[in-house]
Design a protein that fits this description.
The structure is a single chain. The protein is α+β, with helices and mostly antiparallel strands. Helix content is 72%, strand content 9%. The protein is built from eleven helices and seven strands. The strands form two sheets. It has a five-stranded mixed β-sheet with strand order 2-4-5-7-6, with helices on one face. Helix 5 packs antiparallel against helix 6 and helix 9 runs antiparallel to helix 11 (467-477). The mean pLDDT is 77.
C-alpha cells in the first residue's frame, strides 16, 4: 500500500468517526435546545412579569393605605408615584398578562387565573382612582377630610383589601405554575446536557481509541523508516559515508531508502576523490613552500654578503636593497602559507575538550600581554549565560588570539581599544561575540572576500591577511559560521556560531 493510500485510510477513518459523533450530538442536543428555548421564551419571561406585577401591587396597596391615613397632608412625590403605577405600570402589566393568557388553552384553570388577574387589576385601578379623588375633594376642610378619610377607609376595608388579596392569590398561583414548569425545563435541560456529555464522552473515547489504533499502525509504517533515514542522514553529516540503511517497506519510502543508499555510495566515492585531491594539493603546497624556503634564504644571504663586502658599486646598492625587501616579503608569504597549511592539516584531527571560556581568554591575554599593555586595551568578558564550550583548545585559542589581535591592531587613533567578548546559546549553537570600538570597515567593499586568504583592505596597518581566513577555516570545519557587522569610525562585531 502506498503512503497516499495509507494516509487516505487514516484520515478517512477519523473523519467517519467525527461524522458519527457530530450526528449523535445533534440528535441529543435537539431536546436540550427545546427545553432551553422554552425557558427563554415562556417560563422566565412569565415569572419575571408576574413578580413585577406582584411587586407593583404590594407597593401600590401600601402607598394608598399611607395616603388615606395621612389625608390632609400634601405629599406630591407619593401622589406622583401612585399615578405612575396606575397610569403606566398597571396597564403594561395587564397587557403582559394578556400575552401570557394568549399562550394558554382557552379552557383551564390557568386561563381563568389570567382572566381574574386582568379583571381584579382593572377593578383595583378604578378604586384607587376613587381614593385619589376623595383626597382632592376634602382639601382645606377638616370635616370634609375626616369624612373622606372614613369613606376611603371603608372602601379599602370592603373593596380594595379583598381585591388586593384575590389578586395576590392569583398572581402567586400563576407564579407557582410557571416556577414548576421552569423547574421541569431545567431538569429536562440538565438531563439532556448530561446525556449529551456522556454520549459525547463515550463516543469520543471510542473514536479516539479506534483512531489511535489505526493512526499508530499507519504512522508506525511511515515514521519508522523516516526515523531511520533521519538517523542515517545525521551520521552522514558527521562524515560516515559508508552507512547503508535497510527498509523492508514496499512503498515510496522503500524506494527512497534504495535511492538513499545509492546517493551515499556516490557521495562516498566523490568524497574520496576530493579528499585525495586535497591531500595531494596540500602535499604539493607544503613541498613547494618548503623547497622555496631554502633557495630564498640562500639568495638573501648572498645579497647581504655582496652588500656588506662592498662588492657592488653604490649605485647598485639600492637595487640590492629592493631585492632584499622583495625576498623578505616572499619569505613572510611562504611562512604564512606554511601556517595556513599547518592549521588545515590539524583540523583533520581535532580533539574536543570542555573548555572554560575565561581560562581561554586569560591564556590569550598572556600571549598578547605586550600589545595589551602598550595600547592600554580594555577587555570585558560576559560569560554568565554560557561559561563552557566543547572545542579543540589549540584551535579555540587561535580563534580568540586572531580576533583580539585584529581588534587591538585596527584601533582608532586617540581612543583606548575596548573589546567585549560575550557568550550565549541560540537554537542549538554556542554563540561567541567579539565587539570593538576600532576603525570599522566598509562591508560593501569587503563583501565576499573578507575571509579569503591573503585578503587585506587597509594598507595603513601591517598584516598578512591570513588571520580571519584561519578563524573562518576553524569554525567552518566543525559546521559553524562567522558573521560580521561593522561601521566605519564606530567599530566591528564578529558573531561566531559553533554547534553544541
Amino acid at each position: 500500500m502506498t503512503i497516499r493510500n495509507k494516509l487516505i485510510l487514516a484520515f478517512g477513518s477519523i473523519i467517519l468517526f467525527l461524522i458519527i459523533v457530530i450526528t449523535l450530538i445533534q440528535i441529543v442536543s435537539r431536546d436540550a435546545n427545546s427545553n432551553y428555548q422554552n425557558m427563554l421564551d415562556i417560563s422566565n419571561p412569565a415569572i419575571s412579569n408576574l413578580e413585577r406585577f406582584q411587586s407593583s401591587n404590594n407597593e401600590l396597596n401600601l402607598l394608598v393605605v399611607n395616603l388615606v391615613s395621612s389625608y390632609g397632608s400634601f405629599n406630591p412625590s407619593r401622589e406622583n408615584r401612585i399615578k405612575g403605577i396606575l397610569d403606566v405600570e398597571f396597564p403594561n402589566l395587564i397587557s403582559e398578562v394578556k400575552i401570557i393568557q394568549g399562550r394558554l388553552p382557552n379552557e383551564g384553570k390557568l386561563f381563568e387565573s389570567c382572566h381574574q388577574i386582568i379583571t381584579i387589576a382593572a377593578e383595583l385601578r378604578s378604586n384607587y382612582w376613587i381614593i385619589l379623588g376623595m383626597e382632592k375633594a376634602g382639601k382645606g376642610n377638616k370635616e370634609a377630610i375626616k369624612l373622606a378619610k372614613d369613606l376611603a377607609g371603608n372602601l379599602i376595608h370592603d373593596e380594595i383589601t379583598p381585591l388586593y388579596q384575590r389578586l395576590t392569590y392569583q398572581l402567586c398561583k400563576l407564579q407557582d405554575f410557571y416556577k414548576k414548569e421552569n423547574a421541569q425545563f431545567q431538569s429536562g435541560l440538565a438531563k439532556s446536557i448530561f446525556l449529551l456529555s456522556t454520549t459525547t464522552l463515550i463516543i469520543g473515547v471510542v473514536a479516539i481509541l479506534l483512531g489511535l489504533i489505526i493512526s499508530l499502525r499507519i504512522t508506525k509504517s511511515i515514521v519508522n523508516p523516516v526515523i531511520k533515514l533521519q538517523e542515517s542522514t545525521s551520521e552522514i553529516s558527521k562524515g560516515n559515508y559508508d552507512l547503508k540503511i535497510e527498509l523492508n517497506e514496499s512503498d515510496e519510502l522503500g524506494k527512497l531508502g534504495k535511492s538513499f543508499n545509492l546517493m551515499t555510495a556516490a557521495v562516498q566515492e566523490s568524497f574520496n576523490k576530493v579528499e585525495n585531491s586535497n591531500r595531494k594539493l596540500m602535499q604539493l603546497n607544503y613541498i613547494a613552500s618548503h623547497d622555496l624556503k631554502t633557495p630564498v634564504k640562500n639568495i638573501e644571504g648572498l645579497l647581504e654578503v655582496l652588500k656588506e663586502e662592498n662588492m657592488i658599486a653604490d649605485e647598485g646598492k639600492c637595487l640590492i636593497d629592493m631585492a632584499c625587501s622583495n625576498l623578505e616579503t616572499m619569505t613572510d608569504t611562504i611562512a604564512s602559507l606554511n601556517k595556513v597549511i599547518s592549521v588545515q592539516t590539524e583540523l583533520e584531527n581535532m580533539e574536543m575538550d570542555k573548555l572554560h571560556l575565561s581560562t581561554i581568554v586569560d591564556e590569550v591575554k598572556g600571549l598578547l600581554s605586550t600589545e595589551i599593555e602598550n595600547t592600554g586595551t580594555q577587555i570585558d568578558e560576559y560569560f554568565s549565560t554560557m561559561e563552557y564550550v566543547m572545542f579543540s583548545k589549540v584551535h579555540l585559542v587561535s580563534v580568540f588570539q586572531n580576533m583580539l589581535t585584529n581588534s587591538i591592531k585596527y584601533q582608532q587613533k586617540g581612543n583606548v581599544p575596548k573589546i567585549s567578548i560575550s557568550s550565549s546559546v541560540e537554537n542549538g549553537f554556542a554563540i561567541l561575540e567579539f565587539k570593538d570600538n576600532g576603525i570599522g570597515m566598509d562591508l560593501k567593499r569587503t563583501e565576499g572576500r573578507l575571509f579569503g586568504l591573503f585578503q587585506r583592505f587597509n594598507d595603513t596597518y601591517k598584516g598578512k591577511g591570513i588571520g580571519l581566513h584561519i578563524v573562518s577555516s576553524i569554525i567552518e570545519s566543525v559546521g559553524g559560521e562567522i558573521k560580521v557587522e561593522s561601521e566605519l569610525g564606530v567599530g566591528t562585531s564578529f558573531r561566531v556560531s559553533i554547534p553544541i
